[in-house]
């Protein structure tokens, strides 16, 4: 049930990220911007791809906005994790490493009633 890590090891931030991690936010923002421009054209009764410059500007603009928001989010959570890590370092007695348990110790015995 428990991986045997101490609370400081859990907050160390050594998790690996996939190759898609840094491409997801700007890609999704770009697709949303492009589709938003298509939706505006559809709503006004114009062909979907007319005024292609609007599509490019919307895709690049929302992609950049999504990238900026993703970087802000990453920085915010890094600061939050650093604050938690510092608190755990100052109060190690409040965060003992839990003992490792087996499933057999956690589950109660079960007898089916038929």
Sum this structure up briefly.
With 114 residues, this protein is mainly α. Helix content is 59%, strand content 0%. It has helices at residues 7-10, 24-43, 52-90, 103-106.
Give a description of the structure.
It is a single chain. The chain has 114 residues and is an all-alpha fold. The chain has a domain of 73 residues. It has four helices and no strands. It starts with 6 loop residues before the first helix and ends in an 8-residue tail after the last helix. The mean pLDDT is 89. InterPro entries: NDUC2. It comes from Aedes aegypti. Belongs to the complex I NDUFC2 subunit family. One of its GO terms (biological process) is mitochondrial electron transport, NADH to ubiquinone.
List the helices and strands and how they pair.
Elements: H1 7-10, H2 24-43, H3 52-90, H4 103-106
Helix pairs in contact: 2-3
Order of helices and strands: HHHH
- Mean pLDDT over the residues: 89
Q: Helical percent range?
A: 55-70%
Instruction: Catalogue the unreliable spans.
Output: none
Q: Report, as a whole number of angstroms, the end-to-end distance.
A: 31 Å
Largest sheet: none
* Radius of gyration from CA coordinates: 25 Å
By DSSP (H or I, 4+ residues per run), the number of helices equals 4
Overall strand count = 0
Strand content: under 5%
Q: What does the overall shape look like? A: elongated
């Amino acid at each position: 049930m428990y991986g045997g890590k101490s609370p400081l090891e859990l907050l160390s931030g050594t998790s690996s990220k996939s190759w898609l991690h840094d491409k997801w936010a700007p890609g999704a923002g770009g697709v949303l911007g492009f589709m938003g421009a298509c939706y505006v054209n559809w709503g006004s009764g114009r062909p979907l791809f007319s005024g292609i410059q609007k599509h490019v500007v919307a895709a690049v603009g929302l992609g950049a906005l999504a990238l900026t928001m993703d970087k802000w989010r990453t920085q915010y959570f890094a600061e939050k994790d650093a604050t938690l890590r510092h608190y755990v370092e100052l109060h190690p007695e409040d965060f003992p490493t839990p003992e490792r348990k087996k499933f057999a110790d956690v589950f109660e015995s079960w007898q089916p009633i038929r």
